[in-house]
Write a structure and sequence with these properties.
Strand content: 5-15%
Radius of gyration: 18 Å
Bound molecules: adenosine-5'-diphosphate
Oligomer: single chain
Number of strands: 7
Length: 300
């Protein structure tokens, strides 16, 4: 049963560790934790959710720049113990979200974290933190990140496995964002006995992605993401302090997209039994609604 052998994932802050529970879910669940696998999702192809297209600006997912942050602020992250899923299930969800650069993973992760109380593990954020801190991993990753290439598997796999071993991930569950990004990374998770409840693939066409990336800016104070064309801030002060990621240029996003396309099918192929595709061109709120339904179904 492939779902039993499937995935798991992670991201967010920097350190911490945690030993993967065995992929053979129920028998390896930690005390007090109910692990279930979405056997009802096995026919993943039949369950793919592709919403109808909407208008041009909505289709770019820039309905509101602050939607995800607003969710976080008004609905502080519950602990996993407080989260009661559909059918009254309490558990620590194990989720993976995948998608091309600027497909909206970061925005959706904020909403998912707020609703399910999971630990958000973004490998991009983890690596950027490592580069800023000048750690060994950061020094090894920097040149790859600067050029838009993937960091070598042997560098990132160890970081992720270590992070997944941390007590907060065991207790609250996790949301892997940006990992696994290659077949080797997916295999490493499986070999470590890491399995997931759900693999969400955010699908957005390349031409929209390039447009999103080049105009994307982050507020270093609040972490909110804006777009210079689709969702600029109203406040002059915020506008002045916005920062652009050094790899958010047209030249580098083309390299990043090339890497993404070279690997994505192999990664998706590792999770067919728990995979659900979501149309990432919809407004963030609509994408969120589709994702929540998917997760609720997977956790029931
Ligand atoms: P994006 O998904 O928009 O490219 P991320 O913030 O997820 O941005 O990642 C930024 C960079 O970090 C990537 O271009 C790559 O160099 C590196 N990186 C992140 N996750 C991984 C990973 N799983 N494997 C290899 N490199 C990674």
């Amino acid at each position: 049963m492939k779902s039993i052998l499937s995935i798991a994932v992670l991201i967010s802050s920097a350190n911490a560790f945690f030993t993967q529970p065995s992929a053979v879910a129920p028998s390896t669940a930690k005390a007090g934790e109910t692990r279930r696998h979405p056997t009802h999702l096995n026919a993943s192809k039949n369950r793919r959710k592709v919403a109808s297209r909407t208008t041009w600006s909505e289709a770019r997912g820039y309905g509101t720049a602050t939607s995800a942050a607003a969710v976080s602020e008004s609905d502080p992250s519950p602990s996993a113990a407080d989260v009661v899923g559909v059918g009254g299930r309490k558990a620590a969800p194990r989720l993976i979200i995948a998608g091309a650069p600027a497909s909206g993973k970061g925005t959706q992760c904020e909403s998912i974290k707020a609703k399910y109380g999971v630990v958000h593990l973004s490998t991009g954020d983890m690596l950027r933190a490592a580069v800023s801190a000048g750690t060994d991993v950061g020094m090894r990753a920097k040149e790859y990140m600067d050029s838009g290439r993937l960091v070598p598997d042997e560098v990132i796999i160890g970081v992720v496995k270590e992070r997944l071993n941390s007590p907060d991930c065991a207790e609250s569950g996790w949301l892997l964002d940006g990992f696994p990004r290659t077949l080797e990374q997916a295999n490493a998770l499986a070999e470590a006995g890491v399995s997931a409840d759900c693999f969400i693939f955010l699908n957005v066409p390349d031409e929209i992605l390039v447009e999103r990336v080049v105009g994307r800016r982050t507020d270093p104070v609040t972490g909110k993401i804006y777009h210079m064309t689709f969702s600029p801030p109203d406040d002059e002060e915020i506008l002045k302090r916005l920062e652009q990621r050094s790899d958010d240029t047209e030249e580098k996003v083309k390299v990043r997209l090339g890497q993404f396309h070279a690997n994505v099918e192999a990664v998706r192929g590792s999770y067919t039994d728990i995979a659900v595709e979501v149309d990432g061109t919809q407004r963030p709120e609509e994408v969120s609604a589709m994702i929540m339904k998917t997760i609720d179904a997977a956790l029931t």
